[in-house]
């Protein structure tokens, strides 16, 4: 049987993912959220430890949503309060089997988070992850045992506004996102390196 060669292309969701600061008022459904969490569940992790937990509040949750907004830095509060969902990614620092530190936990948390971001982009949503938040305040709000759990990022989730309605700032942000290093700046074939020695 002949193998037809298909043209290889980059996954559209990866290509379309970015981090907007302006969201529409369109609701994010429970079904959509379940798919985002399923994307995290399917992410790879060292020893299959899956060292991630997610805590979220929808805008319609009122007080719970506002308490997450209050954990954000002032600059992030200004725009993130308009997202439909706020979510905190929390890393489990120790391995269940032996209670030892999991040196791969942060890497694995990142894998789960990017899985959520790509799944979101594939559904027309976007995720903006933020490091600008008060970790201690978030840990207290979530009642975390900080010996073993650490808040890593806060996500703002929603449908981005139509680009025709972008502010000048948002146009600049989108253009900045599209600026990427060339592969030759960060990819190195070892056999070429060794030959040059």
From TrEMBL:
Residues 14-158 form the Nitroreductase domain. It holds the Pfam family Nitroreductase. CDD domains: TdsD-like (cd02138). This is Nitroreductase. Belongs to the nitroreductase family. InterPro entries: Nitroreductase, Nitroreductase-like. It comes from the Bacteria. GO terms for molecular function: oxidoreductase activity. Keywords: Oxidoreductase. Gene3D superfamilies: NADH Oxidase.
